[in-house]
Design brief:
By secondary structure, this protein is mostly helical. The chain has 2 helices and 2 strands. The chain is elongated and about 35 Å long. The model has no long low-confidence stretch (mean pLDDT 81).
Length: 77
């Protein structure tokens, strides 16, 4: 799978920026020097500089959940 650098929608841009901001909040080192310390702004600057990309999966992952392990909630009467 190839790393994508250009975004096909604003929604995907927001998702990638949010995930990178979470990584920064959890202690990752910034990839750019910035005047701000806010994680969401640093993430946006990293994306603008072309240092952050994403991998788009070719096929959807199907999860097989057996109906017996899905919790059932009792009706409240």
């Amino acid at each position: 799978m190839a790393v994508e650098r250009e975004f096909d929608s604003n929604y995907r841009y927001v998702l990638v920026a949010a995930r990178r901001a979470r990584q920064l909040q959890q202690g990752s080192q910034p990839l750019v020097t910035s005047r701000t310390t806010k994680p969401h702004k640093v993430a946006q600057e990293e994306i603008k500089a072309g240092l952050v990309g994403y991998v788009r999966g070719k096929e959807r992952v199907k999860t097989d959940i057996e109906s017996t392990i899905v919790p059932r909630f009792a009706s409240q009467s």
